[in-house]
Amino acid sequence: MGNFFKEFTKNVHKHDDLWDVLWVGQQFYQLLGLSPLRYRGQGKIPVPKRVPWGAIISSVVFLGFFVVHSVSDLATINSSSYILSNGFRWFQQLVSVFTSLVAAINAIYCKKIARLVFSLYDFDLKLSAIGYPMDQKSQNRWINSAALLISSFLVTLSALTAYLTIKISHGSFLKFSWAECFNGILSSVPIQITSQVFLVISGHYVNPKISNCNTFLFTSQLFPTEPEHVNSFRLASISKNRSLLNERIAQIADLHYFLIQLTARYNGIFAVQLMLTHLGATLITILSWFSVYRAVVSADGDSIFVVSINVSWSLYYSVYQFMYTMMGAQVSFEAKQMGVVVHKAIEIVTDEDIRDVLLLFSAQIDQRCPEISCQLFVLNGTLILSTIGFICTYLVVLIQFDLTSNV
């Protein structure tokens, strides 16, 4: 065990190979019995396995948290505060429902996710084989920094939510009989337990989607468009060898087609999850900011504290969705820039053979471009503006209905 943690610390500290870090991390989950994947010998080829026994242990651990959550529900149902009796309770249940749905779908696609992870690893190998390795240090540093910030934010929010639960339950819990408390727990715990079981079974219910998006983000920059990277395409060993240049362009075209296939498979696996995530984040944001309006117009002193926590959670989900959307937008942007570079190359190349290869590659880029979508909408900058308009519109509608009901 000591050697295992030593190897894990060494790989994380060096940031030299993302797949080594993920592999050692999977070994850790496998030792705990939580990993949905296993590996052949000392290799890094993921193979799906059946439901791990660790799911049962994790469910028991989460049971305590859900008991507290159920008690807070009992305390808020009969509260005189609109924010406590409706906003906070609805917010928590909405998060639970969407989380369980996304986790359940990820569990169904567990085998396909494992194959996609292996395909991404294979894509890295092919990319390195032709002399275009990914900048693993930069990618890992970005991922680890983002994970650290998100974890810190979640720990802070969880602590504040726990404090809110204790604050609400204090004095109110004693007014209920044990039978009523037990019935309340039984009514709300099953969906929470089921949600967490699905989360554990699905394994990478968040991390693979983030790592896959990051992989698409960095591999889509196959043709760097910044001036400082242009010299990478002017290597003397290639420019003086026409056959090698033709072969290199054909290899890049094959990798581009492979990338298109990967994005199509990614969309096929995560289409429903992306749609549910976007819908859930949007609804949570609308309810949270509507609760801000209710807290401002009401005289409830505790409402501001409750609303601040709700808004913080909604900001977390909104930033999470914003990150996905911006990554999808970056993939689409780099695909367009790739086409621009190839078209410019066609204009300045005089060799007919190289020109023909570039024309074929250009036709492939024009006909099929990698893009992240959920079949209903494409994740790009337009989606962000549309979502902001959607949120503002329905906030106005809710406020108008609330004002009408008070007349």
TrEMBL record:
Its main location: membrane. It is a multi-pass membrane protein. The lineage of its organism: Eukaryota, Metazoa, Ecdysozoa, Arthropoda, Hexapoda. The keyword Membrane applies. GO terms for cellular component: axon; dendrite; neuronal cell body; plasma membrane. GO terms for biological process: chemosensory behavior; male courtship behavior; sensory perception of taste; signal transduction. Pfam families: 7tm_7. PANTHER family: GUSTATORY RECEPTOR 8A-RELATED (PTHR21143:SF104), INVERTEBRATE GUSTATORY RECEPTOR (PTHR21143). Belongs to the insect chemoreceptor superfamily. Gustatory receptor (GR) family. The chain crosses the membrane at residues 51-70, 90-109, 146-166, 269-291, 303-320, 377-401. It is found in: Cell membrane. It comes from Culex quinquefasciatus. InterPro entries: 7TM_chemorcpt. This is Gustatory receptor. Gustatory receptor which mediates acceptance or avoidance behavior, depending on its substrates. Keywords: Cell membrane, Membrane, Receptor, Transducer, Transmembrane, Transmembrane helix.
